[in-house]
Structure formats: C-alpha cells, structure tokens
Amino acid sequence: MKDQHQVNGEIRDKEIRVISETGEMLGVMSASAALRIAEEADLDLVKISPNAVPPVCKIMNYGKFKFEQAKREKENRKNQKIIEVKEIYLSMTIDIGDLNVKAKKTMEILAGGDKVKVSIRMRGRQMAHASMGVDVMRRFFDMLGGKAVMDKEPKTEGRNITMILSPAKQ
C-alpha cells in the first residue's frame, strides 16, 4: 500500500493552509515557515488535503497518526462480514421428504447470512422436460416460506437449472 500523505520536506507547494495540532487554523503561509513551526513543536507537517487550494497541512505526530489510521482500518476489516455462496443440489425426481430436508438445510444456511445457489442437473431425457425442473425449484422456494429472496430466477443453462437465494430482510 502506497503512503498517500506527503510529510515535512516532501511538501513542495509555495503556499499552504496550516492547522495546528489542537485543530486551530494558523492560516495560509509558506511551506518553509510551516515546517519551521512544526520543527519547533517537535512534530511533523503532514499534507492532509492535497487537492484543496491552497493545500491543507496539519502539524501532528505522523507516527501516531499512521498507527491510529492502521488501527481504524483493521477494526473496519474485522467488522466486515464476508458473504459466501453455498450450493444445494436437487434432483428433478426428488421426493417430498428429501425436499423437506434440503429446505431445512437451506434455511440454516440463510439464517447464517450466506447466499444459496440451488442447482438441478438434468440427465438424459430430463433435458426435454426442463419445465419440470423449474417447477421443482419454485416448489422448493415456496417451502422456504418467506425466509429467502430470489436473487436470480430459475434459469436453464445447458444441463443445469440454477437459482440464487439470499436471506430475507426481517
């Protein structure tokens, strides 16, 4: 990851707007004068907003700033939930009891916050009766009783019929 902030001697602008470490506006001044003020306070001059006119720089402890920034990014990554897509296979000739078991397993997956891809693989003569597979998919979706939202309608792709379900918002 490239460091995006210019620090101390890297700041080449003639005039910059300077903010003190307490957040007080010191005004517009030359970069060398601002650097002198930062060195007197034994701190760093960091360019915060390079696109502003004039660029905004702040006097701060750069090491502490980078540490706090890394800590915030780590916290944000920790709080993110990665959604997985799990697959459930059905058959065109599946019995109602087996369909109930698959529906129960699908509800568990959806309750965990993951998406579910439901697939039927057609074999031999079943290719001629793809509409039966779509009917099985719709019946399966109805068994979930509002606990799922259909992201992708049942669609025939070659030998497979697939649909994607995601958890319903409560």
Secondary structure topology:
Elements: E1 15-19, E2 25-30, H1 31-40, E3 44-49, E4 56-60, H2 62-79, E5 85-90, H3 96-111, E6 115-121, H4 130-143, E7 148-157, E8 160-167
Parallel strand pairs: 1-4, 5-6
Antiparallel strand pairs: 1-2, 3-4, 6-8, 7-8
Please explain how this structure is put together.
This protein has 170 residues and is an alpha/beta fold. The chain has 2 domains: 8-78, Translation initiation factor 3 (IF-3), N-terminal domain (Ubiquitin-like (UB roll), Roll); 85-167, Translation Initiation Factor IF3. Helices cover 34% and strands 31% of the residues. The chain has 4 helices and 8 strands, in the order ββαββαβαβαββ. It has helices at 31-40, 62-79, 96-111, 130-143, and strands spanning 15-19, 25-30, 44-49, 56-60, 85-90, 115-121, 148-157, 160-167. It has a 4-stranded mixed beta sheet with strand order 2-1-4-3. It has a 4-stranded mixed beta sheet with strand order 5-6-8-7, with helices on one face. The longest helix is centred in the middle third of the chain and has 18 residues, at 62-79. The protein is rod-shaped and about 85 Å long.
